[in-house]
Input
Amino acid sequence: MSDLPGGLRTRFAPATTGYLHLGHVANALVVWGVARATGGAVVLRVEDHDRQRCRPEFEAALLADLEALGFDPDEPSIDDLRSGAPSDYRQSDNGEVFAAAASTLHARGLVYGCDCSRATFATWSSEHGRVWRGGGCPGGCASRHLGLQPDLVWRVALGEGDEAWDDVVLGPRPGPVAGAGDMPIRDRHGNWTYSFCVVVDDLRHRIDLVIRGQDLLDATPAQIRLGRLLGRAAPPRFIHHPLIRRPDGRKLSKADGATSVRQLLDSGLSAAGIRARAAAAIGLDVTGSWLPAALPPGDPFV
Output
């Protein structure tokens, strides 16, 4: 790509809460395609921070499906993850890393316990006729000094204002850091949250190009701010690509079994056919349609 330097590190980082589907394949096509076109590297990360929903069998299926589709990461190897040995690239093996990052923020007075639930936010919205906007939370928990109890949500106060970035696809994009309250970093079940883990991991894995769907646009400003608070001098570059949508317009999800890689392979569709179907669904088959010069025409895995 003309506006991206060579040698960038990007990542493919699905949550192991279900089987890979066409939406994951579309993301993988962009990740591997951009990395190959720019001489970059792909890091494979297993995002299994949610201990209630993630399953070892989904991780095993993830690795098998990537192999079947021809997606070979630069680090770690699929065999390394398949061995089951502790890995720097599996979130459930690195709880102490996330705890240390939370301790760093807490020492600066930025982390607090919160007993607000989704119902608390919903009640506040009903009473005020609008959704909660800005930092804090409806219960004013930061000033109540509830402590970091295990049954509370832990939030980080990122401050107010906007963060801006120059998205490779979408151009300049500003956004509020605290769009709907302070960022939760740990839920009441003891799970580190996606928004927290992804920033910590992108920093320690030296990721300087984040490629993901446009559903995560609103999460970007808070993640940029959090990265800075954790010592990141400059944020990564971002590419937010289109999503594959269901006929009703909703984002494709793991619940859409008919689009799972395993079911498509079992139905007799080839790896190339699955990649082509995912590519067409987000416009990768039209040269320059939304990612100019990012990928060569056709299937980069042939």
User: Anything to note?
Assistant: The first helix runs from residue 22 to 38. Residues 286-290, 292-298 have pLDDT under 50 and may be disordered.
